[in-house]
Amino acid sequence: MTRLRSFGFWSLVVAILTYMTLPTLVVLMTSVNPTEILAFPPEGVSFAWYEKALTYPDFQSAFKNGLIVTSLASTAALIVGSAFAWLVYRYSFRGRGVLEAVLWSPLIIPHFTLGFGFLLLGGAFKLQQGYAMIVLAHMVLVMPFVTRAVYVSLAAIDPDLARAAANLGASPFHVLTRIELPLVLPGMAGGWLIAAVLSLTEFTASLYVTGSRTQTLPVAMYNYIREYADPTVSAVSAMLIITTTLIMFIADRAFGLRRVLAIDTH
Amino acid sequence: MNATSPAPAAVELVRVRKEFGSAVGVADVSLKIGQGEFLTLLGPSGCGKSTLLGMIAGFLTPTAGKIVVDGVDITDVEPYRRDIGMVFQSYALFPHMNVFDNIAFGLRMRKLPKADIAVEVRRAIAMMKLEGFEERRVSQLSGGQRQRVALARAIVIRPKVLLLDEPLSALDKNLRAQMQVELSELHRKTGLTTIFVTHDQGEALSLSDRIVVMNRGEVQQVAAPVELYRTPANGFVASFIGEINALPVARYERAGAEAALVLPGAGRLSAAAPAHWDFTHGVEVRAFLRPEHVRPARPGEQGPNILRGVVAAHIYQGSHTITRVEMEGLGLIETRVTGADIVGTHPVGAPIALVFDLGEAVLLAAR
Lengths: 266, 367
Ligand SMILES: Nc1ncnc2c1ncn2[C@@H]1O[C@H](COP(=O)(O)OP(=O)(O)OP(=O)(O)O)[C@@H](O)[C@H]1O
Ligand SMILES: [Mg+2]
Fold this sequence. Notes:
The structure holds 2 protein chains of 2 kinds. Chain A contains 12 helices and no strands. Chain A is mainly α. Chain A has one domain: Orthogonal Bundle (MetI-like fold), CATH 1.10.3720. The relative contact order of chain A is 0.14. By secondary structure, chain B is α+β, with helices and mostly antiparallel strands. Chain B has 2 domains: 9-240, P-loop containing nucleotide triphosphate hydrolases (Rossmann fold, 3-Layer(aba) Sandwich), CATH 3.40.50.300; 245-365, CATH 2.40.50.140. The longest helix of chain B has 18 residues, at 173-190. The two termini of chain B are 46 Å apart. The A-B interface holds A 158, 160-161, 163-172, 174, 178-179, 182-183 and B 57-59, 78-86, 88, 90, 92-96, 105-106, 109-110, 153-154, 157. The complex binds adenosine-5'-triphosphate (ATP) and magnesium ion (MG). Magnesium ion is lined by residues 49-50 of chain B. Residues 49-50 of chain B line the site of magnesium ion.
């Protein structure tokens, strides 16, 4: 009985995993196809497309753009989001609910709408297709995730710790710098990483706010595939996935990402 | 400090009150706590003990009233300027610091020179028997060790008052007993004015100079342990401290030096009236009598204050046995006898005669 049940359980797990990873696997497999078509299943193994991906100037500049946008947007989102999470955690004030709703709104509003909105705004302020607009758009998109990560780790701090610190003579400033900040640092690092990954791979909104000079990697991939149908984009995808996985793995090791994302209770 | 002047109270609470919305957490509590005293706040869960401590520590602002420490009104002083040490029920040790840094935290906040900090911390570590644990993370400590770190961290700043909020409740029974001893020793060595919170009456009786019994935010009685046990001020205190038999409402009769209780349908108990029994003849009173003041009659014993009943249960407790006796008109009465012989001589269901030592009873005017 238990064996049957465990067989059923594992079948289900395998089925879900397959379903979730199949599209990715297909893309990854086409990336090693030696011929110039995006065929599945692949007809052999070749790394020629990886070489092309790495040397293609549009991808090179798009990757660089992506890094600039991502690092600025995630860092800005981290600063603003952490401050906000702290305010919500520490104080109750009028309008807190409204502020919270506005902050969560990027989860509900389609990226398409946001991107379009920023495009119109950019036009109005003569900022269209510039880095500033892209960074602002990305910052808004990733903010809920950063705030959430920081808030969760703040809320996990025993409120008696701040009291104990105050009781021992720590001013509110010292409570913040000596107790709350160190304890929330893993949460901030985790939040930043999630933001970075989301920003690095964001496509829909980016399509509106980037220009040919400032396009990020997903936009460059989209533009590429509109003209050519060879497996280069598959290779780029593969490299992007491997890079993110590596970053996540290292982050988990360094900061206990699982705990930050509340995947693990301990 | 000056032996000739009367010692000022270390802590004085003047009609301190705390309301949470419409609920009253602490109702107009006035108290004076002497220099070096070990005072316990005792009461059932939710009676306002932590709320009162929170106001003394400064985490909560009183709705009304005034808190004076060493002659200075600190009601509006921020918690971090109060110099009041506190041990939390959860210990609240800083998880990102080791034992040494936890203990040193208060001294660092006071900007003491590094060398002095090291000396003071080492002294606290020695006092709490924590040598060798300096570099340990808090998560690598046992419950008892955490408790000692929390104590060391609170005393190292030489607070004006030490507040302990149920510090022993998270420990198992043996460790509790051991920590009780250590707490008393610590108090003796440091001479710190200490306010200790517990809902465990045994702990309160064994540790305190004085006990404040609270219920529903109000002080019921302030007294030394022995006095509290012997002469509880009201029914709540009588039944909260130790085991006690509540006798039904009875008529009080007085004839010269002798006082008597006329129990409804169950006879009469009499005694030479203690001086504080100043009830008028004929009033109704409630009487409370501890199990150790009720004893089984010897075979063939005659005399006053002997009432009959039937054994309902024995509760064997090692050194003594609590026997419950069903008595007509009185309900269940507990008697406490040494050893376990009574289990054999008076099995459950057997008739038994009990002698009531009425002179030890607590009498309160019936409302
Ligand atoms: N922040 C608060 N808001 C509303 N009511 C509160 C708050 N804090 C305490 N109370 C109420 O005040 C009363 C006293 O609470 P308090 O925590 O002081 O009790 P306690 O004696 O410490 O109990 P315990 O032994 O369970 O710790 C309780 O009825 C509680 O529900
Ligand atoms: Mg409490």
